[in-house]
Write a structure and sequence with these properties.
Elements (H helix, E strand, L loop, with lengths): L7 H5 L10 E6 L3 E11 L2 E6 L4 E5 L4 E2 L20 H13 L4 E4 L2 E5 L11 H7 L11 H15 L3 E6 L6 H16 L9 H7 L1 H8 E2 L7 E2 L2 E8 L5 E9 L17 H7 L3 H7 L23 H15 L3 H18 L3 E3 L6 E3 L2 H14 L3 H9 E5 L4 E5 L2 H31 L7 E7 L11 H32 L12 H8 L5 H10 L5 H11 L6 E2 L7 E6 L2 E6 L3 H5 L5 H8 L4 H6 L16 H17 L2 E8 L12 H10 L2 H10 L3 E4 H8 L4 H5 L4 H12 L5 E2 L3 E4 L3 H160 L1 H39 L4 H49 L8 H90 L3 H17 L3 H13 L6 H7 L8 H14 L5 E2 L2 E2 H12 L10 H12 L6 H19 L2 E3 L2 H11 L1 H12 L7 E3 L2 E3 L8 E3 L1 H36 L15 H12 L1 H19 L4 H25 L6 H23 L11 H11 L8 H8 L5 H10 L12 H16 L18 H7 ...
Parallel strand pairs: 7-21, 8-17, 8-21, 27-30
Antiparallel strand pairs: 1-2, 1-5, 2-3, 3-4, 6-7, 9-10, 11-12, 11-17, 13-14, 15-16, 18-19, 19-20, 22-24, 23-24, 25-26, 28-29
Helix pairs in contact: 4-5, 5-6, 8-10, 11-12, 11-14, 15-16, 15-22, 15-24, 17-18, 25-27, 28-30, 28-31, 29-30, 29-31, 30-31, 31-40, 36-38, 37-41, 38-41, 38-50, 39-40, 41-43, 41-44, 43-45, 44-46, 45-46, 48-49
Length: about 1550
């Protein structure tokens, strides 16, 4: 506490800090603490309106300020809270627990809240990789972070560390310990005994220890009734070398005494549920039949199958290393303990004596003796008799029934305790320990503070342990505070804290402590629990930590650090006694069972004949002292486990329960220690950001942040604060005072804003009224103007009416005069007209009479002429009819010829139909034969196609002739019809005069009918011809379809040919690899030299036995090569070269010297690769059994890429090695391929016929297929039968290609990694941006700074792309490089976003979006040059996450919209993580709605229950993403004949073949 200061709670709440309108926390009987707003202050009484609608009146000392600006998702470190008090801590834990954030820091202490559900994504390998080596506090709180800090401290400082896991039963201590063990094994694990790691062995021991050391209590169904300290030992390299388990304070009394509804240890119930054979063997029954088990009514656990658990325990024993005999002995001892508990006693015949009560007890006595393999009478005597050895004599006395029961229970407890200790020792032996280890990490899993309704000796020991650990914890926390103050260089000499040493003295002090008085009472036979309690009352009546309850003779209360606990001393004496009874010792030591006798080894001579008292409390005190000595030699780390509710269900947070655990766990005590010093710490930037408005003039200066903070605090007038190197340290209550000042400034600013707003509203109203008045005036003036206009209009109308009336009168007078004149003129003109009419009528009558006469005269003359003309015409027409009749008779004779032509046409059509059907059958049969034989012979196909074409042409010619004949027949019929029609028309109308004309007419009619019949027949023939044409067209279509099918079959055959060839090449490569391995094995054997001398002749024989096919192929390839000058050289080339002469050695030296230099490129082709390939091909190096040229080339490449940082050199050799590998891939062919191919042909007839058909075609002769394209005529790319050195060279070249690719990729990753660390979080805004006047300039500077790091990444990418392009690296490899680089960027940015809450903000999302835009521009530019590929798609996770951060109105988005539209790639765990960590530092908006969060949590729970859940982190893929076949497919053909050799080669006569080929 601070000297002369009030308590922290008083400092937090004062009249200066709490004002009307303040948001505060007040106590609540239901929720523990509830927030509200102060509306009245009356002295020390504060009236608060709570958020649940109630009004509370509280004392100001119990009112705490609330931080209204706290993040909605809480803070990950309690020290970041503005107000470090109990309600603030509770609210922060509750908020984070609601979001499934179960881990929270309090400085260096980790608080773990049990989620009561599986969260597998928090503990997988991805999460371990993220926390490995990360600074403490850099990532989200996690148990891995604590383990990593302990491991790094052990490695770096060489000091042992310890991790103390505490908490009440059910808080998750065991699971937390398992997670710690997993992570430590991940950091330093190595294989242990029988392939199991030490961590696995320790975890496999848990089921055994839980079966014998765990039991059901009121609070937990699987409560550990012992403490456990696991020491993980490490060697000098940081690898796990051993482990040891230490146990503390097994609750021995539970064997004999249990309370309802608790249970005894699990092993008793498991044995009762064992198979029937074992139950019969041990004479067991149901748990209700045993005294040690039926003291409670609880015999079974919900959801637990005791029989299955028994089998699991037996399997765990097998894994740990306990043999079958030892297991049988263990469970025989457990069964014996149950039988011992059923032995009852009755009063004997003598005084203070006892005997076995009845036959049932006798049966259990016999069974116990049988199971322990000891004498029955000896066991009975050991239970009811005691032997006292005096100097004079040996006295045997009997025990009364009560003492006999105590002796029985003591035996049971002793046997069970020895059995548990043996199990622990056995497990330690199985795990193994490293005696040479100097560094260890200890994990302490120990019970937390306990305070029940009934507290006994076990609770005293447990709370004594926690008092010891709390003292150690307080010292550690105070030490951490001092280290923080020292690090920040502030004065802390006057700070102290309350120690709990007085409580420890009360319990452990000698000779006046509780444990010492208990041991003293246990030594006196007449002592009782009442006398012991009275002794305590007398001894500690003045001790402020010891309280005597009223109305109680045996209870006492101790004031622990976590609160007062009342203990019942009724069973303290019995539970503290641990007699070494000589009778028990001798009896069990003499057991015939080696296991039982091993549990009770012989005692020293001085104790063999007497019973010596051993104190449980004293022994536990020694163990605890040893544990504290171990902890004091280590660097401690603390994990406080909290159980959020007592129903053991997820999503339930009970405030009172958690508060009590925080008190018991010492968390609030640590907070009180922090409050004693400087509980509030803020960096200078954060302090200026929050309180800079208290002194705006300070921000305008150019002083640094520390001086600015100093000026602000001096201006306010605070005292007692301190300024460190990077933080402001405030005393308790000063943060509230600053917030109160800030609230005043903000209040004044709000009032100013309100005043301005009201002025604006009033002026707006005035302007509105003024506009209305002006509008009204304008309307009124408009009305007056309208009236004036109406008057003027009426006046103008009157003038117009007058004018029209005057006009009317004048016109009327004029029309009257005009009409009179017209009437007069009309009368005169009518009289003249009548006179003219009479004259014309008389003249017309005379003309008509003359006309009638002339008409009669002319008509009579016309009738006479007409009669004569008709007579002449009849005679002439009769003559013409006779001529036409003769012509018709001749036409009738020609009708027979038409019928014959028709018959010929019908026969022709039938013949055509038959030919078409024959063609169909022929085509179908040919197609079936072709498909069945799979294109057996391409020549037959060609002849068939020609035959088909000839037949089709013949059919078409015949059809054409038939059509011509039909057309001629049609024209003839038409002509006949026209002739007949003309004859009929020209025939005389009356032919009754002669009978010949009648007969001719009948013939004409018959001929006409015949002609119609011929027309019908002709039409039928035309239809038949059309049908034949249609059938012919359909046949042609079917023929075309069959041709297409044939072409498709040929294409498929070619593809299958390529596939078979690739498979043959792969098989040959595998055979060559096997050959390499065989030859390497032969080279290692001692008989290598002998085999080498023999192999010379064998090699020649094998080369000749390869068959004529390969030799023929090689000769054909040689014949095609124009670079070979003579046939003599061809004959010499048939035999592979066996050795190199000196000239060739010089040529090889020149080649190696040449390629060691940078030869550059010729039209995009690497000169070195082409030169190496052409030389090796000319020298026939691929076909020799021994050569050193390949090793020298590989050494030259290896020496060239030794400088891993030179990207230009790496790119140069990446281009050369990929080109050379491409040429080798398309050229080399392993030996034995022909024979393997022939075997495959015999095995598969279908592929054999296809390959033979294609191979036998004349078009495929002399050609070589590359990736489905046929290329021939290039002698440089010919298939060569490669030998072992060539195949080994190809494999080594492939390995170098992958190595160079990986080096370039890793160099680029290394270069941008440091930049990515700067790109994940936006740079902080400068202090100048806090001022309004310089906002625009600050924004411009901030915008420039926002993209500086991203531009550096883009610059690095551009530089690498330029280097790769300059060295003509294949675009396929370039795309792979940048695809993996962008995947690396995506993984790094996305994982950092999920693990760092400060990155999940709105402004940071905008920063990342701007950076991703830079990368998108780069990808767009690179994609135009086909170098980016799908790199941009690799950023899909970070792009969608950033899109979610910067989107507005998140609460309105549904889960379906988020998962389907916004972020379809992200998993539910990732979305949940981002949604809960998001905070808007720019606009203050909220994340998604609580309904969406709940839906995500439900989906995550379902995934975890179904074991589908996966990590929310991404994994970086560092594999090689391509194969040799991929490179071969992606790269185009390379023309190497015209590559110019370098001058060094051109001047050497040994390389003349390069110049000849070029010429």
């Amino acid at each position: 506490m601070i000297h002369g200061a009030e308590s922290p709670s008083t400092l937090y709440a004062s009249l200066d800090n709490i004002i009307v309108g303040s948001h505060v926390w007040v106590e609540d009987p239901v929720l523990a603490w509830i927030d509200g707003e102060v509306f009245k202050i009356n002295g020390n009484e504060v009236h608060v309106h709570t958020t649940n609608g109630k009004t509370v009146v509280a004392n100001i000392s119990k009112v705490f300020p609330k931080d209204t600006e706290a993040p909605p998702a809480g803070v990950d470190d309690m020290t970041k809270l503005s107000y470090l008090h109990e309600p603030g801590v509770l609210q922060n834990l509750a908020t984070r627990y609601e979001l499934n954030e179960i881990y929270t820091y309090t400085g260096n202490i980790l608080i773990a809240v049990n989620p009561f559900q599986r969260l597998p994504h928090l503990y997988d390998t991805h999460m371990m990789e993220q926390y490995q080596g990360a600074a403490f506090g850099e990532l989200s709180p996690h148990v891995f972070a604590v383990a990593d800090v302990a491991y790094r401290a052990m490695i770096n400082e060489g000091k042992s560390n310890s991790i103390l896991v505490s908490g009440e039963s059910g808080a998750g201590k065991t699971e937390t310990t398992k997670m710690l063990m997993r992570y430590l094994a991940y950091l330093g694990g190595r294989s242990g005994i029988e392939g199991r790691t030490v961590e696995q062995q320790v975890l496999e021991s848990n089921p055994v220890l839980e079966a014998f050391g765990n039991a059901k209590t009121v609070r937990n169904n699987n409560s550990s009734r012992f403490g456990k300290f696991v020491e993980i030992q490490f060697d000098n390299n940081g690898r796990i070398s051993g482990a040891a388990i230490r146990t503390y304070l097994l609750e021995r009394s539970r064997v004999c005494q249990i309370n309802d509804p608790e249970r005894n240890y699990h092993c008793f119930y498991l044995l009762c549920a064992a198979p029937h054979v074992e139950i019969e063997k041990y004479k067991l029954g149901s748990p209700q039949s045993f005294h040690y088990l039926n003291q409670s009514k609880c015999f079974k656990l919900d959801g637990v199958d005791e029989a299955q658990e028994y089998q699991s325990t037996r399997r765990a024993m097998d894994i740990v290393g306990i043999s079958e005999q030892e297991q049988e002995a263990i469970f025989r001892v457990v069964a014996a303990i149950l039988h011992i508990g059923n032995i009852d006693f009755a009063k004997g015949p003598e005084i203070d004596s006892s005997v076995i009560k009845d036959e049932k007890s006798r049966f259990h006595l016999n069974m116990a003796a049988e199971l322990l393999m000891c004498d029955v009478k000896g066991l009975e005597n050991a239970l009811i008799k005691r032997v006292m050895v005096t100097p004079e004599e040996v006295i045997t006395r009997t025990l009364d029934p009560a003492s006999a029961i105590v002796s029985r229970d003591g035996l049971a407890k002793t046997v069970y305790s020895r059995l548990f200790d043996w199990l622990v020792d056995k497990i330690n032996v199985s795990i193994g320990q490293d005696s040479n280890s100097k560094s260890l990490i200890g994990v302490l899993d120990i019970y937390g503070f306990e305070s029940f309704k009934c507290n006994s000796f076990e609770q005293l020991c447990i709370n004594y342990t926690n008092e010891k650990l709390q003292q150690h914890f307080n010292q550690h926390v105070f030490k951490m505070e001092q280290e923080e103050y020292t690090k920040e260089e502030i004065n802390w000499s006057y700070i102290e804290f309350v120690d709990n040493q007085d409580v420890l003295d009360l319990i452990e002090k000698k000779p006046g402590g509780i444990i010492a008085l208990l041991d003293e009472a246990c030594m006196f036979p007449k002592s009782t629990h009442e006398t012991f309690a009275q002794k305590l009352y007398q001894t500690f009546k003045n001790n402020k930590r010891f309280i005597k309850p009223k109305l109680s003779r045996t209870n006492f209360t101790i004031g622990h650090y976590a609160g007062e606990v009342t203990y019942q001393a009724d069973y303290f004496l019995d539970k503290n006694k641990d007699y070494v009874v000589a009778e028990h010792q001798e009896l069990l030591n003499a057991s015939k069972c080696p296991f039982v006798s091993g549990l009770f080894p012989p005692l020293p001579e001085e104790t063999s004949k007497s019973s010596k008292f051993s104190s449980i409390g004293a022994r536990f005190k020694q163990q605890l002292q040893s544990l504290m000595e171990t902890l004091n030699t280590t660097q401690p780390h603390y994990i406080r486990c909290v159980k959020p509710n007592n129903v053991l269900k997820p999503a339930i947070f009970e405030n009172f329960n958690v508060i009590q655990q925080l008190r018991c766990g010492g968390v609030l005590e640590a907070i009180r220690i922090s409050c004693a010093g400087y509980p509030t710490r803020r960096t200078f930037y954060e302090f200026l950001l929050r309180f800079g408005l208290l002194a705006p003039d300070v921000l305008e200066g150019n002083s640094d942040d520390k001086i600015a903070c100093q000026k602000i605090l001096d201006k306010i007038g605070l005292k007692g604060y301190q300024l460190g190197k990077s933080k402001v340290f405030l005393r308790a209550g000063q943060m509230a005072e600053l917030d109160a000042r800030r609230a005043e400034v903000l209040g004044r600013a709000a009032r100013t804003v309100q005043r301005q707003i009201r002025t604006y509203i009033a002026r707006k109203e005035f302007l509105k009224l003024r506009r209305a008045a002006i509008h009204l005036q304008s309307l009124w003036r408009g009305r007056l103007a309208c009236k004036l206009y109406e008057y003027m209009r009426r006046e103008a109308a009157a003038v117009k009416i007058q004018k029209n009336l005057h006009q009317y009168f004048a016109r009327k007078l004029y029309t009257t005069l005009r009409s009179s004149a017209i009437i007069l003129q009309t009368g005169l003109r009518a009289m003249t007209a009548r006179d003219d009419f009479r004259f014309k009528k008389q003249t017309k009558a005379s003309i008509c009479m003359q006309a009638r006469w002339r008409c009669h005269r002319d008509y009579s003359y016309y009738k006479r002429l007409q009669k004569a003309t008709l007579t002449y015409q009849c005679a002439w027409r009769q003559r013409l009819a006779r001529k036409e009749l003769r012509k018709l008779r001749m036409a009738a004779r020609e009708t027979g010829a038409l019928k014959e032509a028709k018959d010929k046409l019908e026969k022709r059509v039938e013949e055509l139909t038959w030919r078409l059907q024959l063609e169909k059958r022929l085509r179908y049969s040919v197609l079936v034969d072709e498909l069945r034989d799979n294109l057996l012979d391409s020549n037959m196909q060609t002849d068939l196609e020609e035959t088909k074409a000839q037949e089709i042409s013949k059919l078409q010619e015949m059809l054409h002739e038939t059509q011509l004949q039909v057309e001629e027949s049609k024209s003839m019929v038409i002509k006949e019809r026209e002739a007949a029609r003309k004859a009929i028309e020209e025939a005389p109308p009356v032919i009754k005069e002669t009978p010949v004309l009648v007969q001719d007419t009948e013939k004409i009619t018959a001929l006409t009918a015949e002609i119609e019949n011929l027309k019908a027949l002709l039409q039928t023939e035309k239809q038949a011809t059309d049908a034949a044409n249609k059938s012919l067209a359909e046949a042609q279509e079917r023929n075309n379809e069959l041709l297409k099918k044939v072409e498709d079959s040929e294409a498929k055959a070619e593809q299958l040919q390529d596939t078979v060839q690739r498979l043959e090449e792969k098989v040959s490569n595998l055979e060559s690899e096997n050959q390499v391995l065989r030859q390497q094995a032969v080279a290692i054997s001692p008989t290598t030299r002998a085999l080498t001398t023999r192999s010379k002749t064998n090699i020649v024989q094998r080369s000749t036995e390869n068959g004529n096919i390969l030799n023929g192929e090689s000769k054909l390839a040689l014949d095609l090569s124009p670079g070979i000058p003579s046939s003599k050289e061809l004959q010499n080339d048939d035999k592979p070269q066996k050795s190199l002469n000196e000239k060739q050695q010089e040529n090889q030296d020149s080649l190696i010297e040449c390629i060691s230099k940078d030869l550059g490129f010729s039209q995009g082709r690497p000169i070195a690769a082409c030169l190496i390939y052409r030389c090796l091909l000319h020298w026939r190096s691929f076909e020799v059994e021994r050569t050193s040229i390949f090793d020298r080339i590989i050494q030259a490449i290896g020496s060239a890429i030794e400088a891993q940082d030179n990207t230009d050199v790496l790119s140069y050799w990446l281009s050369n090695s990929s080109t050379l590998l491409l040429l080798l891939q398309r050229t080399l062919k392993a030996s034995g391929t022909a024979s393997l191919t022939s075997q495959r042909r015999r095995a598969s007839a279908l592929f054999g016929r296809m390959s033979q058909g294609i191979r036998s075609s004349p078009q495929s002769a002399g050609l070589f297929s590359f990736n489905g394209r046929m290329m021939g005529g290039l002698s440089d790319l010919r298939q060569v039968e490669a030998k072992y050195p060539a195949l080994l060279f190809k494999q080594q070249l492939t390995a170098f290609l992958e190595k160079i690719y990986g080096m370039i990729r890793d160099n680029l990753k290394k270069e941008i990694s440091s930049l990515l660390a700067l790109c994940i979080q936006a740079p902080r805004t400068s202090r100048a941006s806090l001022l309004k006047g310089s906002r625009s300039q600050a924004n411009a500077m901030a915008q420039q700074a926002r993209i500086a790091h991203w531009q550096s990444i883009v610059k690095s990418l551009t530089n690498y792309l330029k280097i790769l392009k300059a060295n003509y690296v294949p675009p396929f490899l370039v795309r792979k490089v940048f695809t993996q680089i962008f995947s690396f960027i995506n993984v790094q940015l996305f994982n950092s976003l999920l693990l760092r809450r400060e990155c999940c903000s709105f402004s940071n999302g905008e920063y990342l979006k701007a950076g991703l835009t830079e990368l998108e521009h780069w990808c767009y530019d690179a994609t135009e040059e086909v170098y980016a590929g799908s790199a941009w798609d690799e950023l899909k996770h970070i792009r969608q996450a950033v899109g979610f951060l910067v989107i507005h109105q998140k609460p309105k988005k549904t889960l379906k919209e988020i998962t389907n539209d916004l972020c379809p790639v992200l998993s539910i765990q990732q979305l949940y993580r981002i949604s809960t960590m998001y905070w808007d530092d720019k606009y203050g908006t909220h994340s998604v709605s609580s309904e969406v969060i709940s839906s995500m949590r439900v989906m995550m729970t379902e995934d975890s229950n179904s074991a589908v859940g996966s990590s929310f982190l991404l994994d970086d893929d560092s594999s090689i993403p391509f194969s040799v076949d991929d490179i071969s497919k992606s790269m185009t053909e390379i023309e190497i004949a015209d590559v110019d050799p370098p001058p060094l080669i051109r001047q050497n006569s040994g390389f003349a073949f390069l110049l000849q080929r070029k010429e």
